[in-house]
Design brief:
Membrane topology (chain A): Multi-pass membrane protein
Organism (chain A): Aquibium carbonis
Largest interface: A-B, 112 and 100 residues
Protein name (chain A): Putative monovalent cation/H+ antiporter subunit A
Distance between the termini of chain B: 67 Å
Order of helices and strands of chain B: HHH
Largest sheet of chain A: 2 strands, antiparallel
Subcellular location (chain A): Cell membrane; Membrane
Strand content of chain B: under 5%
CATH class of chain B: Mainly Alpha
Structural class of chain B: mainly alpha
Pfam family, one (chain A): Proton_antipo_M
Shape of chain B: elongated
Oligomer: heterodimer
Strand content of chain A: under 5%
Number of strands of chain B: 0
Mean pLDDT of chain A: 87
Number of strands of chain A: 2
Largest sheet of chain B: none
Chain lengths: 781, 125
């Protein structure tokens, strides 16, 4: 493809991030009207990708990209076929409307600029996710959607519920992201393909690979958490703590569909196996049922919609898992329909909340005359959700029923689940769209009137698109549904469904669904109470489980910290020296490198005398019962060391040692006499014996190691170098001094610096006193 | 001869580690002072021992004549002695000030940084 087009696509991928960067500044200048400017970014994306419709409908996938980390074979590359293009259009199209909607919804909010920034960043991440070709860009964008979602859910961070919901979403989808990463790496290793386009053209390679099941489970771990499949569904309703534009965008139309996108994307290579066709319908079907049943229980408009979103995602997963061509067509149609009507309904719910001051369906009614445009948008969207003609939802529902059959066993069960689920969804759709508007007017917290154009533009546009797209179903199928279904199925497909009802089993099932739905709708209050009673009886759910897990984690961390870092230095020292003993002895014993038995040393009597003095000094320090003995015996061992240096040819060391030991004794005497510190040890003998054991193991270990070192041949290269060049180069006869001041002069400078800094630190320690400290000193002395 | 020194070095280590394992801060400090000597003598012994001939080039010659003590470990130890003395002095003053502020020389009772019985951190979000 042409370079120019490639550059524009790259620009389109980064444009939302650029817009996010300028959003706060722009909002400071233009206030909420910044929305009109910022919406141009997603609009540009929409127009750009719209231009690909013709190519993609003709079956030509668009690819492009740049090298990113060439050494690892990772590229920043994209891949645009029917599936990714439809997603890209939904994301940028709905994104445009959402930015405008957010302009009206958060008008006057202090942090509106920040909000625009977050939501545009999310848009960029989501766009990148569906267009990614290489696994690595897919994963990076996948995680980026989790992070931006965290920021958006926690936008209202002063409320604990928001913080909890944000953390919950991050933990659940973040764990899923790790699972996905592992899954992608397994696929990469098993097939040698690091890109989606490469993988899709690899045929049966993945299904035949020995790690197929592992890859499948890991990928499903990512997809199910992101798309809120039971039992990971609980984070999605909690995410409703976010401002409504977020709920409408992330948690109905786009992000939660990322999991479904992934499943659809991998269907040609992972699907068509027994595992795929068992796991997906079971989880999807369960999610569908659980979602709709829990939705009945709710009275908050947003929560009702949230649970139907869970249910819809379940339906999509179930259809993807059934795997037949017609099921995939149904999934594709339903996905598009759902994005349109659910986005619209969420925005309607936000609009009602914004204008009437409450979202509780029990306190709303008769708003139709006060908010006619909102009512129109709600009605159109609800009819689509209910699957009535002439709306896109109808096409989807017909296709769903055509995909199911009664041929016994599992299939019949899935059909029953689908009918009940769809009926309940119709109930919720009507409850959200009709209840607040029909009936007698109810006093609402705010005096309700029609919202500004920024607020109703989005829902109305989506609702009308849902209708128009269905009426001109031929065009829609040609440019959107068929290329998308073909990408999911991995083979060309043709879709014929239109809004004209035709007599078939599917139509009959539709009628049953609608009748059932209306029946339940009429006794919604009773159904709600019944559900509430059932849930109260169960009393536990994954949501509470999450709290318990987090608390358990904190308790565990606290307990582990209490054991490992208990604040007792004695224990730290014991652990340290035990480990040192192990580190010395284990390698020597394991490799059989113990030293040979030494011969008895031949030494002069005065050498023995110095040794004896050192040993006596040491013993006296350990046994000293009063401070004077301890100080003097410390001095004795120090001077003995100095004598040893003197005897073995190191006069410089001896002088230094004499000086240092004298100073040590003097300082120690000053400190100890002032503090009345006693060196004796008042511990039980058993404790002392343990310490003697540890000290013995370490000390003897050091000695044995040193003995071994002295028994191996000595490499004198370095010493010879200094001996040879000391005079020749540095003009000094005392080699030790030459090394110190010349060869290693910089080191000596460092050493002097250390001594100086120590001196300053000591000065500071003595000079700085806490106000309270004088009392303690006086009390003690 | 190395054998005898090795045994003495072992004794230095045993005593210093035994002292460091104590709970009394002053004993720990005594242990640290001895530990410095132990390490210095380890380096000294590992560089092999030579009696009474310091590594000094005689007048009129440009290199060492005959066998002398190894100069390299001596240079290392010279630095180490001074550093370990600074370390010891600093710790001593630190212990002195800690005793003044906290009124104890028992390390188990010095718990300002890691207080006992802090309880659980907040369990909310």
């Amino acid at each position: 493809m042409a370079d120019a087009s490639q550059s524009v696509t790259f620009l389109a991928l980064i444009l939302p991030f650029l817009a996010a960067a300028i959003a706060p500044a722009l909002t400071r200048i233009l206030k909420h009207n910044a929305a009109w400017v910022l919406a141009l970014a997603p609009l540009f994306l929409f127009v750009h990708f719209f231009g690909y419709l013709g190519d993609v409908a003709a079956g030509r996938a668009v690819t492009g990209g740049y090298a990113w980390i060439p050494s690892l074979g990772v590229d920043f590359s994209w891949f645009i076929d029917g599936l990714s293009l439809t997603f890209a259009l939904l994301i940028s199209g709905i994104g445009t409307l959402i930015v405008l909607y957010a302009g009206g919804y958060l008008k006057g909010h202090e942090q509106q600029g920040r909000f625009f920034s977050f939501i545009l960043m999310f848009m960029g991440a989501m766009q990148g996710l569906v267009l990614s070709d290489s696994f690595m860009t897919l994963f990076v964008f996948w995680e980026l959607t989790s992070i931006t979602s965290f920021l958006l859910i926690g936008f209202d961070h002063s409320r604990e519920a928001s913080r909890r919901a944000a953390l919950q979403a991050l933990v659940v989808t973040g764990l899923g992201g790790l699972s996905l990463l592992a899954g992608l790496l397994v696929i990469w290793a098993a097939t040698g393909e690091g890109t989606l386009s490469g993988l899709l053209s690899s045929g049966d390679a993945l299904r035949a690979a020995p790690f197929y099941l592992l890859a499948l489970v890991l990928v499903l771990g990512g997809a199910f958490t992101k798309s809120a499949q039971f039992p990971f569904h609980f984070w999605l309703p909690n995410a409703m703590e976010a401002p409504t534009p977020v709920s409408a965008y992330l948690h109905s139309a786009t992000m939660v569909k990322a999991g479904v996108y992934l499943l659809m994307r991998l269907n040609p290579v992972l699907g068509d196996t027994v595992w795929w066709e068992t796991i997906l319908p079971i989880f999807g079907g369960t999610t569908l049922l659980v979602g709709t049943l829990l939705a009945i229980r709710q009275t908050d408009l947003k929560l009702m919609l949230a649970y139907t979103t869970v249910a819809s995602l379940g339906l999509l997963v179930m259809l993807t898992g059934l795997g037949s061509e017609i099921a995939i067509e149904a999934a594709v149609l339903y996905l598009v329909a759902h994005s349109l009507f659910k986005g619209a309904l969420f925005m309607v719910a936000g609009l009602i909340d914004h204008e009437a001051g409450t979202r509780d369906v029990r306190w709303l009614g008769g708003l139709r005359s006060a908010m006619p445009i909102t009512f129109a948008a709600a009605l159109l969207a609800a009819l689509s959700m209910g699957g009535l003609p002439p709306f896109f939802g109808f096409l989807a529902k017909e296709e769903i029923y055509a995909a199911l059959d009664f041929s016994g066993g599992w299939n019949a069960l899935f059909t029953a689940v689908a009918i009940i689920g769809n009926a309940l969804m119709l109930v919720i759709g009507f409850a959200v769209a009709l209840k607040p508007f029909l009936g007698a007017a109810v006093e609402t917290p705010k005096h309700a009137h029609e919202g500004p154009v920024l607020l109703w533009l989005g829902p109305l546009t989506l609702a009308i698109v849902g209708c128009v797209a269905a009426i001109f179903s031929g065009v829609t199928h040609h440019y959107v549904s068929e290329p998308m279904a073909a990408a999911v199925a991995g083979a060309p497909v043709e879709i014929y469904i239109s809004v004209v009802p035709h007599a078939s089993l599917a139509l009959l099932l539709s009628i049953v669904t609608i009748a059932l739905g209306i029946a339940i709708f009429l006794m919604l209050d009773r159904a709600r109470d019944a559900m509430a009673a059932v849930l109260a009886a169960i009393g536990w759910g994954p949501d509470r489980g999450f709290d318990q897990a987090i608390r358990g984690l904190i308790r565990l961390a606290n307990a582990v910290t209490g054991v490992i870092q208990n604040g007792r230095m004695e224990v730290y020292m014991t652990v340290t020296f035990v480990m040192i003993a192990v580190a010395i002895w284990a390698p020597m014993l394991m490799f059989g490198e113990l030293p040979a038995m030494p011969t008895f040393p031949r030494m002069t009597f005065y050498e023995w005398t110095v040794f004896a003095i050192a040993a006596i000094g040491l013993g006296a320090v350990a046994y000293a019962a009063d401070r004077l003995t301890a100080i003097v015996s410390l001095g004795i061992q120090g001077f003995a060391v100095a004598l040893l240096f003197l005897l073995f040819g190191a006069p410089d060391l001896a002088f230094t040692q004499f000086m240092v030991e004298t100073l040590s004794v003097v300082i120690l005497a000053l400190v100890m006499t002032r503090l009345r510190l006693y060196p004796s040890d008042h511990r039980p003998t058993a404790e002392k014996m343990v310490d003697v054991g540890i000290a013995g193991a370490c000390g003897i270990g050091f000695a044995v190691l040193l003995l071994k070192v002295t028994q191996i041949p000595f490499d004198s290269t370095l010493s010879d170098f200094f001996s040879t060049y000391s005079y020749v180069i540095a003009h000094g006869r005392n080699i030790v001094n030459v090394i110190i001041v010349d060869f290693r002069g910089l080191d000596t400078l460092g050493e002097i610096a250390v001594v100086m800094i120590t001196g300053l630190a000591i000065l500071a320690l003595i000079r700085i006193r806490l106000p309270r400290s004088t009392d303690v000193t006086e009390a003690k002395s | 001869m190395e054998t005898a020194l090795t045994a003495l070095v072992g004794l230095f280590y045993v005593v210093s580690i035994y002292l460091m394992l104590s709970r009394h801060i002053i004993r720990v400090l005594l242990g640290i002072a001895i530990f410095g000597n132990a390490v210095n003598m380890t380096i000294f012994t590992a560089g092999r021992i030579m009696r009474e001939v310091p590594p000094i080039i005689p007048e009129g010659q440009s290199a060492l004549d005959g066998v002398t003590a190894n100069p390299l470990p001596q240079a290392l130890i010279l630095t180490a002695i001074v550093i370990s003395f600074s370390f010891f002095a600093f710790l001593l003053v630190l212990a002195y000030r800690a005793y003044q502020e906290l009124g104890t020389d028992d390390t188990d009772e010095m718990r300002i940084a890691e207080p006992e019985g802090e309880g659980l951190p907040p369990l909310g979000y």
